[in-house]
Design brief:
CATH superfamily of the domain at 1-78 and 215-263 and 270-326 in chain B: P-loop containing nucleotide triphosphate hydrolases
CATH superfamily of chain A: P-loop containing nucleotide triphosphate hydrolases
Number of domains of chain A: 1
Helix content of chain A: 25-40%
Distance between the termini of chain B: 26 Å
Distance between the termini of chain A: 28 Å
Bound molecules: adenosine-5'-triphosphate, iron/sulfur cluster, magnesium ion
Oligomer: heterodimer
CATH architecture of chain A: 3-Layer(aba) Sandwich
CATH class of the domain at 1-78 and 215-263 and 270-326 in chain B: Alpha Beta
Largest sheet of chain A: 8 strands, mixed
Largest interface: A-B, 49 and 48 residues
Shape of chain A: globular
Strand order of the largest sheet of chain B: 6-7-8-3-9-10-12-11
CATH architecture of the domain at 1-78 and 215-263 and 270-326 in chain B: 3-Layer(aba) Sandwich
Order of helices and strands of chain A: EEEHEEHEHHHHEHEHEEHHHEEH
Structural class of chain A: alpha/beta
Number of helices of chain B: 11
Mean pLDDT of chain B: 92
Helix content of chain B: 25-40%
CATH class of chain A: Alpha Beta
Radius of gyration of chain A: 21 Å
Number of strands of chain A: 12
Structural class of chain B: alpha/beta
């Protein structure tokens, strides 16, 4: 990791009580994000991506139990007083959700919401806040921004709402933006525009970003580092180019293989992953992926593989039988 | 309304949609959801239908099956005009056509057991013998990869999204239909499950000799299963052609834009900073001439004056554009 670490998630575990028993949503996760860098967190639904981002933001459901540390900009967010946390969120730590209505208030105009956010965190008079709001809306690609200030969220399309949510998230120049499936609900052409927008604003502001997605395609061209999650754990973590060059964890490989390829002929059968992810209230003793893994041996069922580095310290994976690389084959 | 024609590759069309129009009245206004679409699907063929949200894909699919009566146009199924049919005749014809939805969990009645859900089309079709129904339910559940003995007595909420989609597919197959409209059948599923369901659909298609209209917004998914692809924009077809040809050499600027916008899982392929193309206009007041012109980098005066009609650009490939890319 180059530069100074802005966020470091240390041994974070999140447990949720459910009628069916304890659900371990996040299982001993360690992650770091350097200032100005982009981390992609990839995984399928239910693997713990959103709970992890909520743990970072300290926005977990009340009944959730969190252990570990979330060091952000020199302080442990887990220990921070609620008042200080609230100040931090929206100021230096911002978030964009999959459904923009999660962060937008349906009964307030776009203008009111932007201006209030600006004035809550920065000392701006009305005129300056309004001017800044217009600039922000223009920056996120909203046509006729002045007129939009008077509009309500429901008067905008899904793509436009997401732009407004991004404008609000960016308004106080955060150091870290967490984007949780920011484009999953949007069409491909709009998705590309929103991802371009995030990348552009990130460069301009030297902001760090975590992009959470289920789409390996989204992280490939747009992140510095990727963490792949499965059943609450990080199972592989590497600089993006290294990961795509040689995936070591069989789950990562299978996930990529299962994507339909544009250059494949129609009716080519897809290498599907059999079965489905384990029930999170019934944790497995061994590797969570073992029931679906084509390389699994007895040890994979009885013992949990730790997340460990291989040839380079930056590339880690949790697997007893990692996919062989050329170097391994030569040795 | 002018005609867009897109003949199929084979001469034997099982489905022949002719200048279909579907409009929804909303208050004093009209949503032009489908505005003069013609297409043919040959027996045994899969036609993929792609386009962005709200472009009218589902409306087209439902109008083909007469689940929504079209405002104008004809739908010939195996030579019979479904739009002219009523009552029993239509009900009989409906056994030969089925629909699979995007949201598998929501499309199953939460209070009914799986065995009853899958048997329901049989009951409606008048299969009275419970033993016969049970046997058919077991056969079809087995065909979609579920263990009937473990499944029939349970309720939908006990199943995952992928399993619910298998159940929906079983229900769609039980009357042995010839034609199925698959409306975004994998959009709600995770990658690892999506591949299973796509493979299953392909397998069922071969086994039951099905013809499919496969609707999706994901081009890679559509390409994986379709012989030909039709691209739709704001109620009209932009382009129709054999899958590989269309992806290799798109003729319509919108098709090219869609292909370019797909995120590629390869860090060496830098995402192209896409041209700022904005959002689709409202189908209540679609643009004059070419409906894509407000987002099109090639648009000129002619595009706002004159509606482009589908015409041949390459063997089997049709485009509705005044300035096609090929
Ligand atoms: N029952 C209805 N009443 C009024 N308008 C409707 C109705 N159903 C659909 N529409 C409108 O008709 C247009 C076409 O909708 P349709 O659902 O067919 O699009 P779609 O391509 O299937 O979109 P998606 O990808 O979101 O499923 C949209 O503008 C939609 O809002
Ligand atoms: S007809 Fe004109 S506006 Fe429409 S796609 Fe072609 S060039 Fe673009
Ligand atoms: Mg639809």
């Amino acid at each position: 990791m180059t530069g100074n670490t802005l966020l470091s998630v240390e041994d974070v575990t999140v447990d949720l009580p459910t009628p069916r028993g304890n659900l371990r949503a996040v299982d001993h996760v360690d992650l770091t994000v350097g200032a100005g860098r982009t981390l992609g967190i990839v995984g399928e639904s239910g693997c713990g991506k959103t709970m992890l981002s909520r743990a970072i933001l300290q926005l977990l459901p009340k009944k959730a139990k969190l252990s570990g540390r979330v060091m952000f900009d020199g302080q442990d967010l887990v220990q921070l007083a609620p008042e200080k946390l609230r100040k931090l969120r929206g100021r230096s730590l911002a978030v964009v959700f999959q459904d923009p209505m999660t962060s937008l208030n349906p009964v307030l105009t776009i203008g009111t919401q932007l201006i209030e956010t600006l004035q809550e965190h920065l000392e701006l008079d009305d005129a300056t806040a309004k001017k800044r709001s217009v600039e922000l809306l223009a920056a996120v690609g909203i046509p006729a921004p002045e007129q939009r200030l008077a509009q309500y969220p429901h008067q905008l399309s899904g793509g436009m709402r997401q732009r407004v949510a991004i404008a609000i998230a960016l308004s106080c120049e955060p150091k870290l933006l967490i984007a949780d499936e920011p484009t999953t609900a949007l069409d491909v052409t709009i998705q590309a525009q929103i991802l371009d927008l995030l990348a552009r604003e990130q460069r301009r502001r030297h902001m760090a970003m975590i992009i959470i997605t289920h789409d390996l395609g989204v992280v490939a061209g747009r992140t510095d580092e990727v963490a792949v999650m499965y059943a609450g754990r990080v199972v592989e973590r590497a600089p993006t180019p290294a990961l795509f060059k040689k995936m070591r964890m069989p789950y990562t490989e299978a996930l990529l293989a299962a994507l339909p390829k544009l250059d494949a002929a129609p009716h080519t059968p897809l290498p599907a992953i059999s079965g489905r992810p384990p029930d999170p209230t019934r944790p497995l003793q061994g590797c969570s992926f073992s029931p679906r893994c084509r390389y699994a041996v007895a040890r994979c069922q009885s013992e949990k593989p730790p997340l460990e580095a291989a040839e380079t310290s930056a590339h880690q994976f949790a697997c007893f039988h990692p996919i062989k690389t050329h170097a391994d084959a030569d040795a | 309304m002018m005609l867009q024609s897109a003949p199929s590759v084979s001469s034997e069309a099982l489905l022949d949609v002719d200048n279909l129009v579907v409009e929804y009245p909303v208050g004093a206004k009209i949503v032009h959801a489908v505005s003069g679409v013609s297409l043919q699907i040959a027996r045994g063929e899969t036609l993929g239908l792609v386009g962005e949200s709200g472009c009218g894909k589902s409306t087209l699919g439902r109008a083909v099956l007469q689940l929504r009566r079209p405002t104008a146009g004809r739908v010939l199924f195996d030579g019979h005009d479904l739009t002219a049919m009523q009552g029993d005749a239509l009900r009989l014809m409906r056994r030969r056509v089925q629909l699979i939805f995007q949201d598998p969990i929501a499309s199953l009645n939460p209070r009914r057991k799986i065995g009853d859900i899958v048997a329901e089309p049989l009951v409606i079709a008048g299969v009275k013998d419970p033993e016969k129904r049970k046997q058919l339910v077991h056969e079809v559940l087995t065909a979609v990869g579920l263990d009937p003995t473990l499944v029939v007595g349970r309720l939908p909420h006990e199943f995952s999204g992928g399993q619910c989609q298998r159940i929906c597919i079983a229900r769609a197959l039980i009357l042995n239909p010839e034609f199925i409209v698959c409306d975004e059948p994998v959009s709600a599923l995770d990658v690892s499950i999506r591949a299973q369901i796509l493979n299953l659909l392909e397998e069922m298609k071969g086994r039951f000799g099905l013809t499919l209209l496969f609707i999706a917004h994901d081009l890679a998914v559509v390409k994986a299963v379709s012989d030909r692809v039709a691209v739709m924009y704001l109620g009209r077809l932009c382009e129709v052609g054999p899958s590989e040809q269309l992806f290799a050499r798109p003729a319509h600027p919108y098709t090219a834009l869609l292909i370019e916008a797909i995120p590629v899982p390869d860090p060496d392929v830098r995402p192209t900073e896409t041209v700022p193309v904005g959002e689709p206009p409202s189908p209540i007041a679609p643009p004059s001439g070419c409906r894509f012109r407000t987002r099109c980098p090639r648009a000129d005066q002619r595009c706002s004056d004159e509606m482009p009609e589908l015409r041949v650009v390459a063997p089997g490939q049709f485009v509705a554009c005044h300035h096609p890319l090929i």
